[in-house]
């Protein structure tokens, strides 16, 4: 037996089934026209942003990192709830503008921005978080060519990283950002070139569940930003402090203590160094905002035994839920939270493996899980599917095609 991850709070049972937004899993599947299906709960999204705002200082702006989930109706909702949007490609820029989001509240980070992407961002009045000196110079040239002043910030590659972070994106040699020691020279070059100097972006990692690690990193980010502002010798209008807030995916994971983080940040904001007194601060979050509000629903198409092991074979799999299969940035595969959606709340009576329909042993949704007895035709739910699901999985693999998506 292997434990399943913790089912996020906020899901109820209706007529013995998992309910999302007050509707049973099977009625949602019917409404969407079939499985596999991602369902996102708008009330959970709203509640998540609201509780985060209650915990964080009023001065802190909350940005949504849309790479976590770019589904248009969800993006539109998130745009109405947060203060800014962080994008990482020209494609995301198109989606953000199509969702009617304010260009002035969008910033664009990410390595390898092509000239067309830089041009679209500059023309649209988006803030570019520069990843290198070369990118800065291409932005100046494009701004000159199209007669538009680029709005530029610098993404810093700090010399520290977020402790306990699932994916390390700061510290040492990185393709992301400009090494901290080189930032002041580049910032002065940006200002001298006549660009609209916006400030700094310091992202240090993802998926941290330890509040103390985040508190420590935020303190380091503020100190670094103040030192850099001082060396640059110009006001720092904006500081994107990164994010890294994690969600519990696996057995034993505890929810992040955002109250502790908010309290510590409030104290820091009360005694800021002079360089940061007038700075606008933001954090950028992806999975923390949307991850737990999404459920992936698949149907059992076969039930079989092999050498004494029960397999529930579903019509979904890693082509939609790569992360739950353990193949998206995890070293050791562990079970995501999962359940038989058509027997939600029933006592587990058997050990079974839930697998997908792809012809590869990588396609596992739950290993050796204790579950209620489920038959062909019943629905399986994989939780924590709101972030890095549909858009972060190889949906073309084996000719399977994308899942349906629904915001309720
Ligand atoms: C991916 C990414 C995020 C979002 O990460 P989450 O773990 O989903 O919160 C935020 N900022 C940057 C720069 C990123 O690359």
Q: Could you walk me through the main structural features you see in this protein, from its secondary elements to its overall organization?
A:
Strands 4, 16, 17, 18, 19, 20, 21 and 22 form an eight-stranded mixed beta sheet that branches. Helix 2 runs parallel beside helix 3, helix 5 packs across helix 6 (133-146) and helix 8 packs parallel to helix 9 (258-270). The chain is α/β, with parallel strands linked by helices and 408 residues long. The radius of gyration is 22 Å and the shape is elongated. The protein has two domains: 12-40 and 293-407, Lyase, Ornithine Decarboxylase, Chain A, domain 1, CATH 2.40.37; 70-285, TIM Barrel. Strand 6, helix 4 and strand 7 form a beta-alpha-beta unit. The model has no long low-confidence stretch (mean pLDDT 96). It is built from eleven helices and 22 strands. It has helices at residues 25-32, 42-55, 72-81, 90-98, 115-124, 133-146, 183-192, 211-232, 258-270, 287-290, 322-325; strands spanning 12-14, 17-20, 23-24, 37-40, 60-65, 84-87, 106-108, 127-130, 151-157, 167-168, 178-179, 196-202, 205-206, 238-240, 280-285, 294-306, 309-314, 338-340, 350-355, 364-371, 379-382, 404-407. The longest helix has 22 residues, at 211-232. The structure holds pyridoxal-5'-phosphate. Its EC number is 4.1.1.95. The modification N6-(pyridoxal phosphate)lysine is found at residue 67. Keywords: Lyase, Pyridoxal phosphate. The active site is at residue 359. This is L-glutamyl-[BtrI acyl-carrier protein] decarboxylase.
């Amino acid at each position: 037996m292997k434990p399943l991850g913790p089912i996020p709070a906020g899901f109820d049972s209706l007529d013995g089934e998992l309910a999302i937004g007050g509707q049973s899993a099977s009625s949602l599947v019917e409404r969407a026209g079939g499985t596999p299906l991602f369902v996102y709960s708008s009330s959970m999204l709203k509640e998540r942003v609201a509780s985060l705002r209650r915990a964080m200082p009023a001065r802190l702006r909350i940005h949504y990192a849309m790479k976590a989930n770019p589904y248009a109706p969800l993006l539109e909702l998130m745009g109405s709830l947060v203060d800014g949007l962080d994008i990482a490609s020209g494609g995301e820029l198109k989606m953000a503008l199509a969702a009617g989001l304010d260009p002035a509240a969008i910033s664009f980070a990410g390595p390898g921005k092509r000239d067309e992407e830089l041009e679209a961002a500059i023309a649209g009045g988006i803030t570019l978080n520069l990843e290198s000196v070369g990118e800065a110079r291409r932005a100046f040239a494009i701004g000159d060519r199209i007669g538009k002043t680029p709005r530029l910030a610098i993404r810093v590659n700090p010399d520290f990283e977020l402790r306990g972070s699932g994916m390390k994106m700061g510290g040492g040699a990185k393709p992301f950002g400009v090494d901290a020691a080189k930032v002041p020279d580049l910032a002065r070059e940006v200002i001298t070139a006549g660009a609209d100097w916006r400030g700094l972006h310091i992202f240090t990692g993802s998926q941290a569940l330890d509040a103390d690690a985040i508190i420590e990193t935020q303190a380091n980010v503020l100190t670094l930003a103040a030192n850099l502002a001082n060396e640059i010798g110009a006001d720092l209008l904006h500081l994107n402090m990164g994010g890294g807030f994690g969600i519990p995916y696996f057995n034993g994971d505890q929810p992040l203590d955002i109250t502790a983080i908010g309290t510590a940040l409030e104290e820091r904001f009360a005694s800021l160094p002079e360089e940061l007194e007038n700075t606008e601060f933001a954090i950028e979050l992806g999975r923390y905002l949307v991850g737990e509000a999404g459920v992936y629903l698949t149907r059992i198409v076969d039930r079989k035994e092999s050498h004494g092991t029960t397999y529930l074979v579903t019509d979904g799999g890693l082509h939609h839920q790569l992360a739950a299969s353990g193949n998206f940035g995890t070293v050791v595969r562990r079970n995501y939270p999962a359940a038989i959606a058509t027997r939600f709340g029933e006592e587990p009576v058997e050990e079974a493996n839930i697998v997908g329909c792809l012809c590869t042993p990588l396609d596992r949704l739950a290993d050796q899980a204790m579950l209620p007895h489920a038959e062909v035709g019943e629905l399986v739910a994989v939780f924590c599917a709101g972030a890095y699901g549909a858009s972060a999985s190889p949906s073309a693999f084996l000719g399977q095609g994308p899942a349906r998506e629904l915001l309720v």
